[in-house]
């Protein structure tokens, strides 16, 4: 059985090709890099140039925009939008219905609360509780 593709026209009228990810069957652009151990829900999208690293989880309805990075073991919650060129750090958790703006950064281990918006270009830092949860703080 061969690889099947789905094609969409983007906002600039360019036809983009997506394939179903092996773990979860979510749609991944052919120019995106998604590790085989990452989970991409069948209703989630990973756009061109984006990267989803080892063990990351992309939940129902989530959208990883162009050139964004979701690092190892990060969790992107239900209906989350990770903006263009944004970075979600290792072990970070983005709560349901939250959004991470273009060029924003979520530090390793940080937990972004439900429905919160990390503004474009901002950096969301991990709290002491976040770091203790990971065994990184005294």
UniProtKB/TrEMBL annotation:
InterPro entries attached to this UniProt entry: Trimer_LpxA-like_sf
GO molecular function: transferase activity
Record keywords, A-Z: Transferase
Record lineage: Bacteria, Bacillati, Actinomycetota, Actinomycetes, Micrococcales
Top-level taxon in the UniProt lineage: Bacteria
SUPFAM superfamilies: Trimeric LpxA-like enzymes
Name of this protein: Transferase family hexapeptide repeat protein
